[in-house]
Design goal:
The chain has about 1150 residues and is mainly beta. The protein folds into 7 domains: about 375 residues, Glycosidases (TIM Barrel, Alpha-Beta Barrel), CATH 3.20.20; about 90 residues, Sandwich (Immunoglobulin-like), CATH 2.60.40; about 80 residues, Immunoglobulins (Immunoglobulin-like); about 80 residues, Immunoglobulin-like (Sandwich), CATH 2.60.40; about 150 residues, Galactose-binding domain-like (Jelly Rolls), CATH 2.60.120; about 100 residues, Sandwich (Immunoglobulin-like), CATH 2.60.40.10; about 200 residues, OB fold (Dihydrolipoamide Acetyltransferase, E2P) (Beta Barrel), CATH 2.40.50.200. Helices cover about 15% and strands about 40% of the residues. An 8-stranded parallel barrel has the order 1-2-3-4-5-6-8-9, surrounded by 5 helices. Strands 18, 19, 20, 21, 22, 23 and 24 form a 7-stranded antiparallel beta sheet that branches. Strands 25, 26, 27, 28, 29 and 30 form a 6-stranded antiparallel beta sheet that branches. The longest helix has 25 residues. It is globular, with a radius of gyration of 37 Å. It starts with a helix and ends with a strand.
């Protein structure tokens, strides 16, 4: 038996070795569920996906497949499937249109009725993109004002164009702040298990040119002008902006809900990595092309889980799939790696194979923690979940499994330090300040654009946190990092930089850089001396002699340098007021150029652009021609490192040879012979009589004869014919047919028809072309003495057609000739693109309220898919559509505007109308906003109460003191005044809100704001209850517009958060009465102040209680105005 068992055991081992690994441990098993089709758009889809809540048997597709997580797309293009605290709209396709799909999925996924497995829900958001080809989110239009840098968040290409996906720019601090708040809305307000980034990148290497980001870059590195897209420092800057956002979200989650996992769908693409090293990743497109440095995020620990989109058709790219998987498994650092195969690209068998391969170890023996397949909706090419699931369960997941724990979350041994650095006085973010920690570990980093910094995974112990910036004295705090003492072990440490009189260094730069010298220059705001440290590392090592001349314009020459070497430097200036040191800067000495990355881009039928880079500045020349002898050249003498030469006047569909040459004072370099091929110009649409675009339009269902003679020329397999009527009047024997193309674009088209020619063919075949705006008839002579002829014949030149199927060609037998009319095919050839329809305006929104008396803001959306919108025009009036305040004004292509120089009246409502003009000068109908009312700006609640009912008021940001259904209260931080706000906007106690609204009076004496605009913010200073006796709640009038209670005395405390204690004297249906010996009376015969709780039973008569709540008002017996407490808490004293 033992010998037999050994043989069987060895055979089993061999079988296991020859097959892909089964799950070897706990495994994350998930599918991406996108929002562009069926999946969770209504409750029945959620039930199918994740099961029915409360049912032990209806488990849903995910549980039935033995998976344990879903990554669900809850934010597409700044539109969402949950109630957004940021005001982002619900996306299309939901049923009902405000279906809270996220909450429905959480409920179903977390339901464990009958022992059902709990499914993790990871909320997938597209981060920067705001649009598709057919939709642009309001968010894009709301922050797209070039005249207002703080509100111009869009990313631009190096040529100043929007990106195709209407992306926002992470290099704009206000944009970063907003997107972080989007993330934290999901984390704080929903019981999600994870937050999942998508499109956490640029979409091309020439993006990121938001003016604010460029200005910050120049300020940081002492540059000026616009950096070239291939400037290595500029590339790193763009990587850093995305990294800063990821780091901030990770730190914020850690400080609030540390169990929530942060992950992302990260791009891979080709070229695939050649090894599992940092340098190999830097040679892939995520790093060098779209600036998504997810490998560094793993190493830093600012994501919990990477889910790289390893999207490869295994039958075509098996090696690339394996290379990326090996890299992923080897480079996961101290975090989790989930392989994300693009199973939708594969056959069923290869989809299953790719999923099973996620369990294979890399050659180094490393494994992933699971898989996430893309996608639930298309689990393999052309397949459905119903056809996929049986094979998946049988071969990949025959039994359930649990998600592997994350030790850094479940059993942490490291802490974290983060915070925001601001400037004293202004409170503005200290962009670019350097924060250093010293202690058990020493680290430093720049603050991002919002002044934020975070050090993740630091060894516990005592740290000194120092922030410094040139021109400011350093600020410092000590932090004792321990495990288990604060939420998420995140020690939030904010710092403030104060002003100083020491010299301020600006405009640091290197010029006149040769192969052995450079001139360093800078400015100071006051006379000071000059000195430069320099070297090949940031340790410098060499210093120029001190120039003790006190100047404001500084210039120091460094000589004796090595050629083609990068040098670091920093400058020092000092005077009697103190000393200052700049940040680190670099320059590279010159030398003979070396060419890299030559390629032909933007190749059309008649043009191409040749680009390459050199390691040092040099001129540009391209030799080109149809052979390797070239014969033509284009040159540019400008010294550059990023070279671009445009070639024009090329022939279509032709292969060209080219060579790049660069020369400078130190030498020359040239490439080998390279080639590219221009595009073909052919663009035509042919509709044959056998195609779907052909239709028989004959009366009485008459049919055409079908001919298929092999000797007759034709399009397709056959042609049609019928005898001419011998009449121009339609009869029962008339034949008609129609060719209808589906044109891809509006424009001018030449129209051709194909027909047979012969001795039995009609001499007057009547074709009619129906185009945009008209029609024409073309009589074609199909007769010829030579039989069996045919061909294409033009029947219309440069006729206007709209995109789609509105135009067509029709042929009939209405001819005086009775010979055969031949019908075969029609053809449309695009001559030029054009636009014949005006644009449309979708909406115009305004501020609802403003406190400005000289400016208004508006946001709008318009579209014109044919020629695009050339400009928008806006006007302002005091009635809808009117222009009496400001006539029609050109807004360019901006989709938002701040209109300055106005003279506005407080209390007046103004309407903003917008119309669009397209590239062909056609103007849309105008759309008008709902109206914005100029509110009176007040500094305090008490000041607001000094105005009469009906006055429109704008308050500064204040903290919420209490919240009830449909009502909340705000209060001054010094507890001097509070007010009732009637609004359904969800708010939290102690949250900062800015309220605009119409003043009114509630129950005779309590002031309130109605018809409100509420701008919610972050958590503000906590409002603590004011301890009072009941008599102090029965307050006197504040002013002629703010009455007191009947018989009231003392200070006006209505609207304040208070705490009082006493004995319950009576219990009523919606609360109770409380008396503390003051013996207040509302005329009902019961002593004490009324406490509203919304129900009876919260206490009993004779009980001693402590009540925390708001002093409000009620109308008692005989119309007496009485105070009452809106209770937040009733407790024992």
């Amino acid at each position: 038996m033992r010998g037999c068992f050994s043989k069987v055991f060895l055979a089993l081992l061999l079988t296991i070795a020859l097959t892909h690994s089964s799950a070897y441990a706990d495994e994350f098993r998930a599918f991406w569920v996108d929002a562009w089709g069926a999946g969770f758009l209504n409750q029945s889809q959620v039930d199918k996906l994740l099961g029915v809540v409360g049912s032990a048997t209806q488990k849903g597709d995910i549980r039935n497949a033995n998976c344990n997580a879903v990554i669900v797309q809850v934010r597409r293009r700044a539109d969402v499937c949950y109630p957004s605290a940021m005001g982002e709209p619900y996306f299309s396709g939901l049923s009902p249109s405000d279906f809270n799909a996220l909450q429905a999925m959480i409920n179903a996924a977390h339901d464990t009725t009958g022992g059902k497995q709990r499914i993790e829900v990871h909320a997938w958001i597209v981060v920067f993109a705001c649009g598709t080809s057919s939709y642009t989110a309001p968010l894009f239009y709301a922050h797209n004002d070039p005249s207002d840098p703080d509100n111009y968040w869009v990313t631009l290409t190096d040529e100043g164009n929007y990106t195709e996906d209407k992306a926002l720019d992470p290099g704009h601090p206000k944009c970063e702040e907003y997107l972080v708040n989007v993330c934290m809305d999901l984390v704080n307000n929903f019981d999600i298990d994870g937050l999942h980034f998508d499109y956490i990148r640029f979409t091309a290497n020439d993006q990121g040119y938001n003016p604010t980001s460029v200005a910050r870059f120049n300020q940081r590195y002492g540059r000026s002008g616009q950096p070239t897209y291939d400037d290595e420092l500029w590339k790193q800057w763009r990587r850093d902006q995305i990294t800063n956002f990821v780091r901030k979200v990770y730190a914020k989650i850690q400080a609030t809900k540390p169990h929530v996992k942060l992950s992302g769908a990260f791009v891979t693409w080709n070229p695939s990595p050649t090894s599992s090293t940092r340098s190999a990743f830097q040679a892939t497109r995520p790093y060098y092309d779209v600036y998504s440095d997810w490998d560094a995020w793993l190493q830093e620990g600012i994501i919990d889980m990477a889910v790289p989109m390893t999207y490869y058709n295994y039958s075509t790219y098996p090696n690339d799939y394996v290379k990326w998987m090996n890299f992923e498994k080897d480079r996961k650092a101290n975090r989790h790696m989930i392989v994300g195969p693009g199973i939708y690209l594969n056959s069923l068998s290869n989809a299953i194979l790719e999923l099973k391969m996620t369990r294979d170890p890399s050659p180094a023996g490393n494994r992933a923690q699971g898989f996430c397949g893309y996608s639930y909706r298309v689990p393999y090419s052309g397949g459905t979940w119903a056809n996929f699931a049986p094979t998946f369960v049988s071969e990949v997941c025959p039994t359930p499994d649990v998600i592997p724990p994350m030790p850094w979350k479940t059993n942490p041994t490291k802490g974290h330090i983060s915070g925001t650095v601001t400037y004293a006085g202004s409170g503005q973010w200290a962009d670019g300040a350097i924060v250093t920690i010293t202690g058990p570990e020493n680290r430093s980093m720049y603050c991002d654009g919002t002044g934020f910094y975070a050090f993740i995974d630091v060894t516990p112990g005592l740290y000194t946190v120092t922030v410094s910036k040139t021109g400011y004295p350093s600020a410092q705090r000590q932090v004792q990092v321990a495990i288990g003492q604060v939420t998420g072990n995140m020690y939030v440490t904010d710092l403030v930089l104060g002003a100083t009189n020491q010299p301020v260094i600006t405009n640091v730069g290197a010029s006149s850089v040769t192969n052995n010298s450079a001139t360093i220059s800078w400015n100071t705001d006051q006379p000071a001396d000059s000195r430069v440290e320099y070297g090949t590392t940031t340790n410098y090592g060499q210093t120029t002699p001190l120039d003790s001349n006190l100047v404001t314009n500084h210039s120091v020459v460094i000589s004796g340098l090595s050629q083609k070497t990068t040098y670091h430097y920093r400058v020092h200036s000092a005077n009697a007021n103190g000393s200052s040191t700049s940040g680190d800067y670099t320059f590279t000495t010159s030398g003979p150029p070396v060419i890299s990355n030559p390629q032909a881009v933007n190749v059309t039928s008649t043009s191409a652009t040749i680009v390459w880079t050199t390691d040092v500045p040099a001129d540009s020349r391209v030799n080109y021609g149809t052979t390797s002898l070239y014969g033509s050249q284009v040159t540019d003498s400008t010294p550059l490192t990023s070279h671009s030469i445009s070639l024009a006047g090329l022939n279509p569909n032709t292969t060209y040879h080219y060579q790049c040459v660069s020369t400078n004072a130190y030498g020359s370099a040239q490439t080998a012979d390279l080639t590219f091929t221009t595009a073909d110009t052919t663009a035509e649409i042919v509709i044959d009589n056998t195609d779907a675009g052909w239709s028989n339009t004959s009366p009485n269902g008459n049919t055409w004869n079908v001919g298929s003679s092999s000797v007759v020329p034709k399009i397709g397999t056959n042609y049609l014919y019928a005898s001419g009527d011998g009449s121009l009047t339609e009869s029962l024997s008339t034949r008609k047919c129609r060719w209808t193309p589906n044109l891809p674009t509006s424009g001018y088209y030449d129209v051709y028809v194909y027909y047979q020619i012969g001795s039995n063919r009609n001499e007057a075949a009547p074709y009619k072309v129906y185009y945009y705006g008209g029609s024409l008839t073309s009589i074609q002579n199909q007769y010829s003495t030579t039989p069996n002829q045919g061909g294409w014949f033009k029947i219309g030149s440069a006729l206007p057609f709209l995109a789609g199927t509105l135009g067509y060609v029709e042929l009939s037998t209405l001819s005086l000739d009775t010979k055969y009319v031949s019908a075969d095919a029609a053809k449309w050839v695009l001559v030029s693109v054009a636009d014949f329809t005006p644009p449309t305006m979708s909406f115009v929104t305004d501020e609802q309220y403003t406190t400005s008396t000289n400016s208004l803001q508006a946001w709008w959306s318009g579209s014109d898919p044919e020629s695009g919108i050339q400009r928008y025009e806006y006007a302002i009036g005091t009635t809808p559509g009117a222009t009496n305040v400001k006539g029609w004004t050109n807004a360019g292509t901006a989709t938002s505007v701040t209109i300055s120089g106005l003279s506005l009246s407080v209390g007046t409502k103004y309407y903003i109308s917008v119309r669009a003009v397209n590239g062909y000068g056609l103007t849309s109908s105008p759309v008008t906003s709902s109206g914005v009312t100029v509110a009176r700006a007040v500094a305090t609640i008490a000041q607001a109460k000094g105005y009469a009912d009906g006055e429109v008021i704008g308050l500064p940001p204040l903290s919420v003191s209490a919240a009830f259904p449909g009502v909340f209260y705000i209060e001054e931080s010094n507890r001097t005044s509070g007010i009732r706000v009637e609004s359904t906007v969800p708010v939290s106690v102690n949250q900062q809100v800015q309220v605009y609204g119409v003043l009114g009076t509630y129950n005779g004496c309590e002031r309130r704001l109605t018809n409100c605009k509420v701008v919610t913010g972050s958590m503000g200073p906590a409002i603590h209850p004011l301890g009072i006796i009941t008599r102090s709640a029965n307050t006197n009038a504040l002013n002629p517009y703010t009455s007191g209670f009947t018989g009231g005395i003392g200070l006006h405390n209505t609207g304040l958060l208070v705490r009082l204690a006493g004995k319950v004297t009576a219990v009523v249906s919606d609360g109770f009465y409380l008396d503390d010996g003051c013996k207040l009376s509302d005329g009902s015969g019961t002593l004490g102040i009324k406490v509203w709780t919304g129900a009876s039973g919260s206490t009993t008569v004779g009980s001693m209680v402590k009540v925390t709540g708001i002093i409000s008002s009620r109308i008692g017996t005989s119309g007496k105005l009485c105070p009452q407490i809106l209770a937040l808490e009733v407790a024992s004293p």
